[in-house]
Write a structure and sequence with these properties.
Blueprint: H1 3-9, E1 12-18, E2 24-30, H2 46-63, H3 75-83, H4 86-100, E3 109-115, H5 144-156, E4 161-166, H6 175-189, E5 194-198, H7 204-213, E6 217-219, H8 229-232, H9 238-250, E7 254-256, H10 267-270
Parallel strand pairs: 3-4, 4-5, 5-6, 6-7
Antiparallel strand pairs: 1-2
Helix pairs in contact: 2-4, 5-6, 6-7
GO molecular function: 2 iron, 2 sulfur cluster binding; 4 iron, 4 sulfur cluster binding; biotin synthase activity; metal ion binding
Pfam families: Radical_SAM
Domain Radical SAM core: 104-271
């Protein structure tokens, strides 16, 4: 059965048309169950109602933000999002997504570990650390042909972004390897692909060189809260991570930074 046929059978048809500003104007048609109460339980507690109200306000605000990013989030707002019902978050998130992207498109990315194992850091969640006994063995950095052939294969398989990761603390004392990586970025960009890297901590010059080579994005995770960080990693500080993120941003490279849920942190740490 074709995608069009499947969508036609859906009980919820979504009609999408492009507005002049490339945002999406959405109208929805719903089918109504004969007895909705049989299919849903509504939490009518004051807390749940407050969360849902905030979620709707947040979604409405995002619909009129015209792509503007906020950097002035209050802790109470973040807490409200964190505690909001998952279906509310999915609904409002989908609205924001449709305003900025084609809802039927998916970007395929390929990630390659160009240097695996033997990392000097002591991240307690990572099997690539040399401080723990794991099945991951230390390897040398892949050579040029291995990396570029992997990128070509990724492009042939439909990927439009190619990401390279290396298991080490930073690039100090790795001038030869860094020079190769800069070359990888240039070569892969020439294949008409986006390129991202995660190479540990950077200095200003390294960030600038990656930008000039055509790097699309740089991944540098914060992992958890500042307060909980020392319980997970002791070989570097939280501020060192923030410094690299600032250097990458100042160089004009898009920053990708995430965290890990389930390291023993509290809900306060997550917010």
């Amino acid at each position: 059965m074709s995608f069009t046929s499947l969508r036609a059978l859906s009980s919820r048809a979504i009609k999408i048309s492009h507005a002049n500003n490339a945002a999406f104007r959405i109208s929805r048609t719903y089918t109504t169950a004969s007895n909705p109460a049989k299919f849903a339980t509504i939490d009518e507690s004051p807390r749940a109602q407050k969360q849902m109200t905030f979620g709707r306000e947040l979604s409405a605000a995002s619909l009129h933000a015209h792509g503007e990013l906020r950097y002035d989030w209050k802790k109470e707002e973040i807490e409200a999002i964190y505690h909001a019902p998952i279906m509310e978050l999915l609904y409002h998130g989908a609205n924001v997504h449709r305003l900025n992207f084609d809802p039927l498109a998916v970007q395929q990315c390929t990630l390659l570990s160009i240097k695996t194992g033997g990392c000097s850091e002591d991240c307690k969640y990572c099997p690539q650390s040399s401080r723990y006994s794991t099945s991951v063995k230390a390897q040398k950095m892949l050579d040029t042909d291995e990396v570029l052939n992997a990128a070509r294969a990724a492009k042939a398989a439909g990927s439009t972004r190619f990401c390279m990761g290396a298991a080490w603390r930073d690039l100090a004392g790795r001038k030869s390897n860094f020079k190769k990586i800069v070359g990888f970025v240039k070569e892969i960009r020439a294949m008409d692909m986006e390129v991202c890297c995660t190479l540990g901590m950077l200095n200003d010059d390294q960030a600038s060189q990656l930008k000039e080579a055509g790097l699309t994005a740089y991944n540098h995770n914060l992992d958890t809260s500042r307060e909980y960080y020392p319980k997970i990693i002791t070989t570097r500080s939280y501020d060192e991570r923030l410094e690299t993120i600032s250097k990458v941003r100042e160089a004009g490279i898009s920053v990708c930074s995430g965290g890990i849920i389930g390291l023993g942190e509290t809900e306060v740490d997550r917010v």
